[in-house]
């Protein structure tokens, strides 16, 4: 099959397993992050996985009472204040400060600067998910402890 | 149009406009150890639409309309004054510009303010470089 003609999203779905990672925007004291602080992934089913795709998914943006938790997923405007760092098995950061703006899969052509045509960010990282994290850049007045950053992560199955 | 890029490494580099912005001003990238001895396979640029603040806490410019990017290989400016907005993936259907494994010389690469209107001192432009280590290229 000619890969150039293959829909990227279908390709990702076909080769991978997916998991939704919910990241609380909390520091070690369980208070909301301040600028420059990191939040580590939690609730991961396996520590070491080959990550093949990342997406901050429009479907989860600004969803309230997420999965019955009482928590709210942040929206696009807030997501612009975060970056993802994936660390490999050797402890080395291989994707460093990847802006959430690089992995959102927005299809909203009506808002300039937000359209990524529904594409999943494709990568290949032999990842230590427990050591990987997000970093908060900036000063969001509305950042509270009740917010989540939902990431859809694709894995090599 | 979908990207064929499969990213193995990336690094978010920042250029801060520390001087008073003026038309024609060049601001060079700093040397970044992670981006030495690598082959760059893609780049995408960010203004405030996709990233509010840099990892160093500097606010990004509101728009890349008046900005150009020049990337050097050795001492040669191989990619000269590329309109930055065409490298902003979220304004171009998510398209990430791909390179054929280019050994960028970052300290000799820079942005140019073609039109400094609307750009303030101490704001930044961020460039996400996708790369391979030369040993793996």
SSE layout and pairings?
The complex is a heterodimer of chains A (157) and B (137).
Chain A (H helix, E strand, L loop, with lengths): L7 H8 E9 L13 E3 L7 E8 L16 E2 L2 H4 L2 E6 L5 E7 L21 E8 L4 E4 L10 E10 L1
Parallel strand pairs in A: 4-9
Antiparallel strand pairs in A: 1-9, 2-8, 3-7, 3-9, 5-6, 5-8
Chain B lengths: L9 E7 L9 E3 L9 E9 L20 E7 L2 E8 L13 E6 L7 E4 L10 E10 L4
Antiparallel strand pairs in B: 1-8, 2-7, 3-6, 3-8, 4-5, 4-7
Q: Helix- and strand-based class of chain A? A: mainly beta
Spans where pLDDT lies below 50 across 5 or more residues of chain A: 1-12
Global Rg of chain A: 15 Å
**Overall strand count of chain A:** 9
Per DSSP, the total helix count of chain B is 0
What does this structure look like?
The complex is a heterodimer of chains A (157) and B (137). In chain A, 8% of the residues lie in helices and 36% in strands. With 157 residues, chain A is mostly beta strands. Chain A has two helices and nine strands; from the N terminus they run αββββαβββββ. Mean pLDDT of chain A is 80; it is low at 1-12. The longest helix of chain A is centred in the first third of the chain and has 8 residues, at 8-15. In chain A, a hairpin with a 5-residue loop joins strand 5 and strand 6 (93-99). With 137 residues, chain B is mostly beta strands. In chain B, 0% of the residues lie in helices and 39% in strands. Chain B has strands spanning 10-16, 26-28, 38-46, 67-73, 76-83, 97-102, 110-113, 124-133. In chain B, the strands form two sheets. Chain B has a four-stranded antiparallel beta sheet, with no helix packed on it. Chain B is globular and about 40 Å long. Classes of the chains: A mainly beta (157), B mainly beta (137). The interface between A and B is large, with 38 and 35 residues.
């Amino acid at each position: 099959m000619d890969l150039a003609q293959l829909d990227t999203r279908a390709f990702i779905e076909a080769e991978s397993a997916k998991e939704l990672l919910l990241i609380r925007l909390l520091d070690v004291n369980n208070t909301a992050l301040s600028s420059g602080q990191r939040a580590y992934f939690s609730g991961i089913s396996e520590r070491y996985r080959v990550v093949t795709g990342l997406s901050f998914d429009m479907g989860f943006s600004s969803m309230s009472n997420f999965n019955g938790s009482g928590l709210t997923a942040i929206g696009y405007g807030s997501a612009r204040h975060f970056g993802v760092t994936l660390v490999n098995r050797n402890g080395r950061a291989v994707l460093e400060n990847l802006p959430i703006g690089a992995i959102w899969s927005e299809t909203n052509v009506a808002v300039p600067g937000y359209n990524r045509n529904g594409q999943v960010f494709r990568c290949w990282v032999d990842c230590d998910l427990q050591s990987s994290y997000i970093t908060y850049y900036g000063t969001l007045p509305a950042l509270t402890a009740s917010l989540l950053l939902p990431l859809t992560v694709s894995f090599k199955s | 149009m979908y990207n064929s890029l499969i990213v193995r490494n990336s690094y978010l580099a920042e250029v801060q406009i520390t001087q008073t912005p003026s038309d024609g001003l060049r601001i060079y990238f700093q040397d970044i150890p992670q981006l030495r001895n690598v082959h760059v396979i893609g780049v995408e640029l960010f203004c405030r639409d996709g990233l509010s603040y840099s990892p160093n806490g500097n606010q990004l410019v509101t728009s890349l309309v008046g900005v150009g990017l020049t990337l050097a290989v050795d001492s040669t400016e191989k990619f000269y004054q590329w309109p930055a907005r065409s490298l902003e993936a979220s304004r171009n259907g998510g398209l990430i510009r791909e390179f054929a494994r280019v050994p960028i010389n970052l300290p000799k690469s820079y942005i140019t303010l073609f039109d400094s209107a609307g750009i303030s001192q101490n704001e930044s432009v961020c460039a996400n470089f996708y790369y391979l280590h030369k040993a793996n290229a």
